[in-house]
Amino acid sequence: MTAPIIEVKNLSIGFTGKSGRTLPILRNIDLTVTKGETIGLVGESGSGKSTLALAMMGYLKKGLRVLEGSATFHGRDTFGLTMRELEEIRGGKLALIPQNAGQSLTPSMRIGAQVSEALKLHSQVDQSARLSRVVELLTQVRLPDPAALVDRYPHELSGGQQQRVAVAMALAGEPEALLLDEPTTGLDVTTQAHILKLLRDLARETGTSMVYVSHDLGAIAQVCDRVAVMYAGEIVLEGRAREVLRRPIHPYARGLLASIPKLKEARLPVAMEGRPPPPGGAGEGCAFVERCELAENRCRQSRPALDLIASGERVRCFRYDQVPELPAAGAGVASERVQSVAEQSALELSDLAISYAKPGFVEQLLGRPSTLTPTVDDVSIRIDTGETVGLVGESGSGKSTILKAVAGLLTPFAGVIRFAGSDALEPEVDKRSSDHLRRIQLIFQNPDESLNPRHTVGEILAQPLKLYFGLSGKELRRRSEALLERVRLGAHYLDRLPGQLSGGEKQRVAIARAFAAEPELVLCDEITSALDVSVQAAVLNLLNQLKQDEGATYVFVSHDLAVVKALADRVAVLYQGRLCEMGPTAQVYSLPSHPYTEVLLGAVLEPDPDVSPVLAAEDVVERSPPAKGCPFQRRCPRKLGNICDTQTPPWQSTGDAHAIRCHIALDELKSMQQGNAAETSRVSSFLKTVSDVQRSEA
Amino acid sequence: MMSSTPLTLAQPRPSAFARAAGVVRDIMSRPSGAIGLALVTLHVVVALLSPYLVPYDFKEISSALMLKAPSATHWFGTDHLGRDILTRTLLGGREALLVTTIATPIAVTWGGFLGILIGLVGGRLDDVLMRVVDAFLSLPKILFVLTAATMFGTGSEVLIPTLAFFYGIPVIRIARAATHDVVARDFITAARARGQSRLTIIGVELLPNVRDALLVEGAMRWSWMLLTFSSLSFLGFGVSPPTPDWGLMISDARGFMSFAPWAVLAPVVALSSLIIGINLTADAFAKALGIDRTEKVPV
Amino acid sequence: MLNLILRRMLLGLTSVALVSIIIFAGVEALPGDACTAFLEREAEGKRLENCRADLGLDRPAIQRFFTWAGGALRGDFGVSADGQKSIAEIVGIRARNSLVLAVVAAAIGIPMAIFLGIVTALWRDRQVDIWVSAIAIFAMTIPEFVSATLLILIFSVWLGWLPGVVIISADVPVSELLPEIILPVIAVSMVLTAHILRMVRTSVIEVLASDYVQMATLKGVPYWQMVFRHVLPNALLPAINVIALTIAWLLGGLVVIEVVFNYPGLGRLMIDAISDRDLPVVQAIALILALVYVGVNLTADLLTMIANPRLRTIYSSK
């Protein structure tokens, strides 16, 4: 082992709370990063992982201070350095790639100027050679047309491109270590997979050490040699990535892994109940004790140290040796997906077309028909009662737009929406009958937005109860309490404001509000994507439970293929507002697939170091769908030729109500894709053998 | 699954009264807020009680006492007609406070109502009305108020509606902007999707979220209205003599500034302290409610 | 881009047209007209009718509006009610004087405000900030006539450094005007500075808290380079519009300050015209004030459009 580049020793960071008490948000962190090594810092929101990464650069957010310990870079304590010395290190030998590149690039400066600024500060490249070096760096991060990009402003780039610029900027100083703070969060799955590949390749080519901060174990699995799992400001488990991800010996890490939905498993992820203690709220004992099923007396009385154990990991648990013996399901109940489909139409969309763009002034004046291509077009889906249908696609795929149209919030310009086998539903919400309104309920992505911040939980739940059932007084309260009980919140929540609840609790309230109407059709718009994984698992289980009890039909919109797989009976894949593939979940997730589904599935990140994403298509951003032909024509890795550009592909059925909209014959598609799959599985089984050999040696 | 443990440390939502008390406490906890609130309270109390407190008759003229310096009998001295300045200063804010405290709520109410309405309805109505609002804003308000005062007189029955009307116009803009911010949020969409009536959406969902912005706006309107009112008196278009008024007193005493500066200083201090007090309070109020006023443009 | 500029200008013109309608309609709605004001007690019977016929007041309002507006377009505002003088002439020279006062005050006030706004933001909550911000609150809240009176009391009465009132005729050349207006300029620029300073301070503080400034720090950009390259360009752009609004808003305050200093500007003329009920003059002044307001805002919008890369691309792609 070479000398460490970054060394964090017993570091505690905290702030002074309103009560005047010192509240730690990092507690006794020990971590070493050596040359060429990639370490993942993983944890849920509030675990302190970003604070730790920034502390390695000697940077603290306003109000924070070091309570004890140190963070050294090449043996020098970053908190003891002068401003001048810090400026030299930051962005030079130690560079940051920020979470949201879109907001981290200065809007008033051209891309070239920003990269070149980093060069000027941290390299010997002189003025005349700087421009060519900038272009070189932009090429290195695989940005298209780098010479032209130099003159662009950040807002003219897509999210993935902005992130690449941030990477190029970090590389300008030829860093020895890179700190990556959630670098792919918020990007589309295919873009994310591309950025991760880039980072992995860079690490290999340049030998740069990396500290990769993420909440996403899938991303961590792709790039990291070692992983440190953080909980409530502490490192609870640290070790080689393969060990930590395959055989986690800390109860929290184990629960966290179990709560991630996985493509290979056709069941719901396991939820972890409870929530982490707030800063300063951990008490005398182990921070995880309240949620731990192995907890015993000593866990409450004293705090376990981060001990190095025989298998090479460091773990903060008294009873780590018993963790592997826990039942496979973990703490929560691994509920099976409820299936209760009746042969009765709950919702039927026929030839739905929706357009956001209004016809231009001139067109209106001349009465000319609009020539704009609609945002959503030609969508026909039938959903049976009791069924859960997943709508999948990346941003801009029109999946939320369809939900809004069903809810009556957007008026489609063509097509019919039929509800419960009846006649066409009024397209506008104002004209729908109160009964229809009650029977269709919508749950939104972000409960911070969808719950009125000025209303208590009681008032929020009262709205539908008053509106649809005319309840008041005691009866209203009784029903509200019963609803809270259904979403596993106590009656004492009635008087709380949303601002006083955690993200998961808020989303439960939003779900309770929807179920207050006793709906038949529940529209879920990315309802778990703003939540931490363990909370997401709990919400998914809750939805499943409610479905069993109330017999509702779900339309579940998500960008996350694993989540959809866990919950949906049937899946429809959308690209640019057009359906690509539709069918029972098992069929859609197996071959043959529409080339777009193939790309999506390939890009999914599994929390498994041996399964790496397959990058089939370029991660270009399309601003509007093509006027004719296949919607996926511009990015399709299996494009046939002219026919894809000019003719709308036909629906081809594989039987079993599974259909793919593609010009390529199905068996041909299947054999192409099998070839690919064989390739990947051969590589991964080889890697698995290698890793098994390694493990037995250790 | 076990039921979720109530780890939330937060207290249930306080009553409206407790919330108001909390806001006042928050204002008092800031030095500038405490000073501001103390000044405003002092002025209001003085305005209410001054008729019983004043040592002299405010219109008692005495040629022997013209422009006397402060003394034991006349603490703040006397003016050019020999009237006691302390008496006149104590009484000098009553008319201004009366007119503006009535006009402010009217202005905020009608402007706020119209602003919320066009913010919600949007479309053509919004386009047309906002053009008209912009047109009104392009002229100084004092022009309108001066003209009204000249044409219809300077009694409170003229000034209250005039001030309430012209100061309500900028409120339209503020209320509309605040409404736009809220309307875009999902809880309004959720209410629409539920099929709530428009009135319920405005009253139950929207208003509680726009209210704070309007309250702060009201406090600011109040101070600007006071400013206009006293400017009016200063220019000779406001309160008619011999009724004591700060603006008028300053205007009268200006000519004798070189040898009787006290006659100017007393009303200057009184007027300034009231307006500064209102502003400091409004600032602290905005911070207590979580709205930062410093970005707002004085329209 | 050109399209957009044209559209923005059209919008400005609509505003001016609307204002002129409001002004005209407002004056129409008032009791009495130029003749009743001019004839006063004798305004009755034949004399009133004759006067109205002379001035064309017996024609329908719409017709008179277009005559008035058409004249105003050519710079002809008609004649004043009392002395039959050309309004354009009286108003013109006064407008020049007000313009001189406003321009000098802005030339001093705006740079000072921007400088102090930046300083208070960078040294937030330090001594400089606390003192400058306190003074700014004082300057922007107390009425203009109070601050002007205090200035006269201090600099003219007590210290005797500067003349307290302006004693010159309206039509002196600018060079003679300038030495007379030191105190009025201070009074105007005080308010102006205070307002703009607060806006600039807020804007800079917001940008300082942005992700990209944190990123610049973590990129190792030295402090002052960060301030000049990353903070100021982004913080001062939105200030352009605020400055424009403040200047326009100041027009009202100018009225009072001119009266206090007896300055022969548009504001004092307006007061005189209103007390004389000389409505044609009031109309003309109102129109000029509205034009300035619209013009200043239009300029600010166009400047922002040109300077902001984001707006530039959004609009040029349209």
Description:
The complex is a heterotrimer of chains A (698), B (299) and C (318). Chain A is α/β, with parallel strands linked by helices and 698 residues long. In chain A, the strands form four sheets. Chain A has an eight-stranded mixed β-sheet with strand order 6-7-8-3-9-10-12-11, sandwiched between helices. An eight-stranded mixed β-sheet of chain A has the order 17-18-19-15-20-21-23-22, sandwiched between helices. A four-stranded antiparallel β-sheet of chain A has the order 2-1-4-5. In chain A, strand 22 (651-655) and strand 23 form a beta hairpin. The longest helix of chain A is centred in the last third of the chain and has 32 residues, at 666-697. Chain A is globular and about 75 Å long. Chain A starts with a strand and ends with a helix. Chain B has helices at residues 16-29, 31-53, 85-91, 94-121, 123-137, 141-152, 156-183, 186-194, 198-234, 246-253, 261-289. The longest helix of chain B has 37 residues, at 198-234. Chain B is mainly α. Chain B is elongated, with a radius of gyration of 23 Å. The model of chain C has no long low-confidence stretch (mean pLDDT 81). With 318 residues, chain C is an all-alpha fold. Chain C has helices spanning 2-29, 34-39, 45-55, 61-73, 87-122, 127-141, 144-158, 174-177, 182-208, 211-218, 223-260, 266-275, 279-307, 309-316. Chain C contains 14 helices and no strands. In chain C, helix 9 runs antiparallel to helix 11, helix 11 (223-260) runs parallel beside helix 12 and helix 12 (266-275) runs antiparallel to helix 13. The chains are: A alpha/beta (698), B mainly alpha (299), C mainly alpha (318). Chains B and C meet through helix 5, helix 6, helix 9, helix 10 and helix 11 of B and helix 1, helix 6, helix 7, helix 9 and helix 11 of C.
